[in-house]
Amino acid sequence: MVEHSTSSSLAGTDAADGAVRQGSLHRTLDWRGAFWVAAGVPPLVLFSIGGIAGVAGKAAFVVWMLSMCMGFLQSFTYAEMAGMFGNKSGGASVYGATAWLRYSKLIAPLSVWCNWFAWSPVLSLGCAIAAGYILNSLFPIPLASSQPVMEWVTANIASYTAQTQAVIDYIAANPGTATDAAIQAVAQADGVAALTPAFRTWEALALKIPGLGTLHFNATFVIGVILMLIIFAIQHRGISSTAKAQRVMAIIVLVPLLLVGLVPLLNGSINSMNVTGIVPPAAAYSPLDGAWNIGGWTLFLGAMYIAAWSTYGFETAVCYTAEFKNPETDTFKAIFFSGLLCIVFFFLIPFAFQGVLGHEGMLAPEIVDGTGVGAALAGLVKGGAVITQILVILMILALFLAIMTAMAGSSRTLYQGSRDGWLPRFLGHVNEHGAPTNAMWTDLGFNVFLLALASDATGYFYVLAISNVGYLTFNFMNLNAGWIHRIDSPHLKRPWKAPTFLIGLNTCLAFVNAMFLGAGAKVWGYSGALWSGLIFASFILPVFWFRHYVQDKGHFPREAMEDLGLTDHGDLGPRRAGILPYLALIAGACVVLFSNWFFQLPE
């Protein structure tokens, strides 16, 4: 890898003639391009719309709206920090990490690492859902009431009697069922199994990993890997090519999705009973109404916890600062207009879904696991079979859109972490198109592993719950970084400066996010999700130690120091904020631990 400073001019260009430097990201993007790259965030609502309905009940659409409002307010802190570092890529976590650098060499890379392992799983989770859609289209499982199944039952029902073990087991599980009805039900289930394409049930290997889960190398895994490789190939040609592909897909996907959200409002399909009487459910995934007691608030906070993973995600619009033609003006525009786009979709789609389907409709298994969302979208506009198939195709494209956004952003986080001396050097390589290919390959390899873990519904939500521990940890640290930069780096130019009251408000929201983290991680069926996420976050320590103390002999790269306005890379500058950053960390940890102890799931 070629190491060089980027401080004397914009990263990736020569000060004299603007020629692209070898080994650097290319400045080929304006704010519109970043907007289109970030346009993959709105479809994230489809990843967990059923899961959030399951734990929030009738309050689900309120969760989406509140979470989106928080994300939009928080983005103003990120916009200010992004403008301060026009030479950096990698997003808000990189810009915020520099604020913590003076206070501990270990804290700064933690922010970058947590942001990366929160965003990166979008690849595996999105590919898992997309693979489910493709399997349903090419290798459908027949319905129990379908003609082929009924013909199978007619041909084989004579082989079932009251003494058949499966019939006995069915009656035991369903007391009061007549023998003839039990025989019919068992025969139909066997007919579905017999007529299910073998590829749907094929599994080459199931590998159990203690304390983590089971890796499934099955049909979902195979299709998911193929999809990842296709997305990798598109992004291999650089951010400009990626933005063009994103723009086309975004228009194809978001316009129909917007119409699907608007039609129920315009044609009177919204049932007011579905969006009034706002209460959490009696228990997670229960169709019964609960109450605003400790158990109910725990479920609500759990929904806020997982919604943040989607609604805050448009901050990825500032991942490309080092690739902006004019970062001083493009940075704020990119995140601001991306936020407005997300407000429209995160307000509209959950409200329309819940207003038409109701709480019980949102609990359907195919809505919870995401594979039936396309058909549900068709139901919102009362579409027939053709409309359903069109929307299923659009769902696959929507997932592609989200996955493209995730790979573009998370790979640049790895890239900049390498350039700043926090992650291994090999991640700082870019190809002739300005694409950080080594970081992209690392993302791909990590997600192949996660895809095997997420290839069934249980593993899917486990990956989501753990990755979000990292995301809320990053948000807590980054929102506090806003005021630390104000105190420690007043000399750095701020092309756009957030109102001071917003910096203060967002600092308060940092501790609200800490409460979500402590209370919410346990809601998703994994009592140890919080601790698993924190353990994974600690993996950065040996990685950073190797890079900093073995490869770099205890010094940070010159370009990283110059970005902070420091010339001596052995001196990290004065700590004007004193002990306040440490107090913020201690207070945040206390909020997480107290919330985890105080908030308990309903019995």
From TrEMBL:
Keywords: Cell membrane, Membrane, Transmembrane, Transmembrane helix. It comes from the Bacteria. The chain crosses the membrane at residues 34-55, 61-79, 112-135, 215-236, 248-270, 290-314, 334-353, 386-409, 498-517, 523-546, 579-599. It is found in: Cell membrane. Pfam families: AA_permease_2. It is a multi-pass membrane protein. Gene3D superfamilies: Amino acid/polyamine transporter I. The keyword Glycosyltransferase does not apply. GO terms for molecular function: transmembrane transporter activity. It comes from Paracoccus aminovorans. This is Amino acid transporter. GO terms for cellular component: plasma membrane. The keyword Protein biosynthesis does not apply.
